[in-house]
Amino acid sequence: MNNKKDSNDILVKFSDVTKKYGDLVVLDKLNLEIKKNEMVSIIGPSGSGKTTVLRVLMTLERINQGIIYLDGEPLTHMPEKEKLVFADEKYLRKRRSKIGMVFQQFNLFPHMTALQNCIEAPIEVLGMKKEEAEERALDLMDLVGLSDKKDEHPSRLSGGQQQRVAIARALAMRPKVMLLDEITSALDPEVVGEVLNVIRSLNKKYDLTMIMVTHQMGFAREISDRVCFFNEGKIFEQGPPQQLFDNPQNERTKQFLHAVL
Ligand code: ADP
Fold it and tell me: Does any ligand 1 atom lie closer than 6 A to the CB of residue 21?
């Protein structure tokens, strides 16, 4: 039985998070809570801060104000002399391994085979034994339908296949949350479906918490528990997909959906 909707635990929490580039406020006192096992899509106009949400959660970018929690613990901050201060790079690196991210440009290691791409971080970062990492990576290759390509280098794989390796590689770290940043945007239209199918089956079979930035409105509607409409670094409107797509309340949401649907 699928019990994924039963959890009320908050896994990710953005509390009044502000991110600026120079004077440009990209995230504006953002509050966002993601429950365990929830599938959340982030949609909105270009430049509204969607990718930045994922990048600050992945700790690739530092926030200027506020705090982000992962599983009840501060992610962006560390304790120092009984106070919480912004975490240093060493601390962030440790926490980062709990989060899996798949990028628009697959970012695979070009000199490694598909399988090697999936065992590198579990061995180097988690200290997993090679045999165990390989066994798990083989299962993941199977899961993304690429068992027969495990010994190929990325340059010999199609875009869709490379992206499926990237998904397997992120899962190999057993992340608490998976972040998907426009993962089909760089793909030829005919292979978009194979990547979406992998996400669809992961969502059905496993209790994964996923946050997905996407332009694929049909897919967001089908797969999400909740859709957040971003504008100017804030959530203008959010709700279950049917509600947000069929009966948006906010004028800006209506305009955006009118333009893209
Ligand atoms: P979205 O994903 O919604 O298109 P982004 O989160 O990528 O938006 O970017 C939000 C804003 O931040 C944009 O105006 C973008 O130009 C700016 N921005 C993003 N990254 C940087 C950066 N490294 N330096 C300066 N400005 C940036």
Answer: yes
Where do runs of H (alpha helix) occur along the chain? 50-57, 89-96, 114-124, 130-143, 159-171, 189-205, 217-223, 241-246, 251-260
Nearest CA to ligand 1 atom 7: 51
- Ligand 1: nearest atom to the Cα of 61: 23
Residue 207 has pLDDT above 90, yes or no: no
pLDDT score of 108 more than 60: yes
Q: Is the pLDDT of residue 4 over 90?
A: no
Axis-axis angle for helices 159-171, 189-205 (nearest 10):
20
ipTM at complex level: 0.97
Residue 181 CA: which ligand 1 atom is closest? Answer: 2
Instruction: Report which of 102, 96, 52 is spatially closest to residue 70, judged by C-alpha positions.
Output: 96
- The CB of 52 under 6 Å from ligand 1? The reply is yes
For the full predicted model, state whether its pTM sits above 0.90: yes
Give me the residue label for tokens 């089909």: 184
Query: Residue 181 contacts by C-beta under 8 Å, 6 or more apart in sequence?
Result: 51, 54, 101, 102, 103, 104, 213
Longest dimension (CA), the chain: 55
pLDDT tier, 204 (very low <50, low <70, confident <90, very high otherwise): confident
